[in-house]
Amino acid sequence: MRRALLAAKKAGEKGEVPIGCVIVKDGKVVSSAGNARESKKNALHHAEILAIDKACKKLGGWRLWECEMYVTLEPCPMCCGAIINSRIRKVHIAARDPKAGAMGSVVDLCEYPFNHKPEVEFGLMEKESQALLQSFFRALRDKKK
Amino acid sequence: MRRALLAAKKAGEKGEVPIGCVIVKDGKVVSSAGNARESKKNALHHAEILAIDKACKKLGGWRLWECEMYVTLEPCPMCCGAIINSRIRKVHIAARDPKAGAMGSVVDLCEYPFNHKPEVEFGLMEKESQALLQSFFRALRDKKK
Fold this sequence. Notes:
Two copies of one chain form a homodimer.
Chain A: H1 2-13, E1 20-25, E2 28-34, H2 47-59, E3 67-73, H3 77-85, E4 90-95, E5 119-122, H4 126-144
Parallel strand pairs in A: 3-4, 4-5
Antiparallel strand pairs in A: 1-2, 1-3
């Protein structure tokens, strides 16, 4: 999660909402990405999607059975759907997202009978992720004043 | 929808599940794609994601407010989430997907309070899409025998 937070911080420095994601297999980092929606002007460029894309390319297949994901904010429906589609085994989430979270907050897609159910664990470095997001939005509000 | 079915058919000829998608703005086609999950070995390469990606690149922004999507099969959670995230105005769906559909069949993501609710219309060229999918899966089963 430390690496995911680092990717989040880097995204924040580029003016993106600071969210980061790392995919790990056998204890080794397969891919890592930060949110890049604004800079890439692309609705799909969430950290999780970018990390899954890199992992599929690196591992040469669309099934990431043996991979675990570390992500600093609860995935949205698109990213949770991508996690289900790519068969990621386990997802470690730092902070919950009450506005768009699709792994328990707004909806829990893992409760529905799709063809894969990842394990989900919340809370690892939750405070650090929340602090990073809060300071980003505070700075944004100050700028607008 | 005719163009989306053509993209679906082309995908099927390459051994992909025949699903196609077209994005339209002001009555003109902005992007078009067929499912390419197997050939690209990538969990993200559903027709809708590829079409949204192309449309964002072409229109130079992540919000596709004025766009409508025509898709031959009901979007999965990932693709429905991508539709919400990209703010697509209306989605025309040919056939329902009882196994993975996220716009009414397994779950209806548009019922939840996310920050965008696309209009949804089912049934346009439904029979043609169903026939295409059925003949693809029949051929697949015959091959396995």
